[in-house]
C-alpha cells in the first residue's frame, strides 16, 4: 500500500471521503489487488494523522460499495469475489505478468531524472536540439504533395530508402549490400529485438561484451536467452572467450559493438575484427555488429577501422545501425543488413508487429541521406563532439582527478570513468540527482561498482562543467573522496 499520500485537511471534500477515494484508486490501479489486507483502522489513522473514526467511515463507505470486506477479528481486505461494483480487472497481476520484463529500476530512476529539465543531464545519449537537422517548410510541403506515400509500405521498408541505404553503406562504410539485403527498422533497437525474438529461442546462449549497452536491455532476457560476457582488452573483445564459451555453452550468437563501444568508447582494432570474424565463421556462429555510434569520429582523431561487415564475404554478420546518433533519434529509422533469407524472415515478423516504420520518417531519412547534407552533418558533429569532449575532460581534471580515472574517447558521446574507491552507486546516483545532476552508473551495463558513463552530447559546455562539480559534491556528501 502506498503511504506517502496525506489527506488535505483544509480541503472541501470530507477527509473520510478523501481516504475512501485514495483507497479506491489503489484498488482500481491494482496496487491493492483482491484479497490484499488493509491496515487496522487505528494504525492507518495514526499514519495519516486522523481520528480512528475517520478511517472507520472511509472503510464503511468502501464496504458499502462492495470494494472491501471485513470480519470481526479478521481485519479488512479488498473484496475477493466481486471486484467491487466497478468490476475492475486485476491489473496488478497483469502488469506483473507478460513476456516482456520491465526496465531495471536503476534505469527507470535515470529516465525519470532525464525528463527533469532542471537536472544537468550527463546520462542522455542524444544530440543537443540545435544539432538535429531541420527541414524547410517548403521541402516538407513538396514531400507531402509529390512523393510521399501514406499507404502501407513494403515489409522490408521503402524501396527508395533501401536504394539510398545501399549506396550509403557502400560509400560511407565499405559495405556491399543490395536493397534486398536491407531491412528498415524502427531504430537499431528494433533490429536487436527482432533478432532476439525471431532468430533465437528461449534457452539459447548468446555472448556480448561485458560491460555492454546490450546488457542494459531486458529484451534479451525477456526472450529467455542466456547471456554470457566476453571480456575486453585494449583491442576489443578477447576471441579466446568466444571459443571457451562456445565449448562450455554452445553459443548461438555473438553481439558486438566494435566502434566507439557503448559505454567504454573502445574501438576494436582491425586485426581483432578479422580474428573475431574468422573465429565466428570457423565455429559457424552468427555475429551481430551493432554500429550505432560508428560514424562519430572526432575531428583530429584517428579514423576507426571499417565495420566487420565490410570484411564479411560469407554473410556471417548481421549489421545493425540507425540515424539516431547522427541525425535524429525521434525519426526512429534504423536498418539491418544480412542475408536475404534472414531479412525476409525478420521483415515478415516486423510486418506482423507494426506494419512497417512510419513512411514519413522513411522519406525524411531518405532525403537526408541522399543529399550532401549527411556529409555536412558529419563534419559538424566531428567538431561539436570534440568541443563537448574537451569541456568534459577539463571538468574531470578539475574536480575528479584526485579520485577517478578515465580514457580519452576518440569519438561518440561518452567518457567511461572509474572511481578509484568504489562507492554505493545507488546512493551516489540518489545524491547526485538531489544535487541536480544525473549520470549512468556502470552496473546498468553490467560493470563492477565504481564505473560511471558520463555523457557530453546533450548539455552545453558550461553545464557539463557544472554537472561534474555537482557530481563531486554528491561524492563528498556520501563519503567518497
Ligand atoms: C550501442 C547502441 N545500440 C543501439 C542503440 C539503439 O538506438 P536506436 O534504436 O535509437 O537506433 C543504442 C541507443 O542508445 C546504442 O547505444
From TrEMBL:
**Annotated PROSITE patterns:** HTH_GNTR
List the Pfam families. Answer: Aminotran_1_2 (PF00155), GntR (PF00392)
**Record lineage:** Bacteria, Bacillati, Bacillota, Bacilli, Bacillales
Q: Which InterPro entries match?
A: Aminotransferase_I/II_large, HTH_trans_reg/aminotransferase, PyrdxlP-dep_Trfase, PyrdxlP-dep_Trfase_major, PyrdxlP-dep_Trfase_small, Tscrpt_reg_HTH_GntR, WH-like_DNA-bd_sf, WH_DNA-bd_sf
Tell me what this protein is called: PLP-dependent aminotransferase family protein
Tell me the cofactors it needs: pyridoxal 5'-phosphate
- Superkingdom of source: Bacteria
Q: Which key words are in the record? A: Aminotransferase, DNA-binding, Pyridoxal phosphate, Transcription, Transcription regulation, Transferase
Q: Would you identify the family this protein belongs to, as annotated?
A: In the C-terminal section; belongs to the class-I pyridoxal-phosphate-dependent aminotransferase family.
- Domain HTH gntR-type, by residue range, is 13-81
| Record-level Gene Ontology MF annotations | transaminase activity
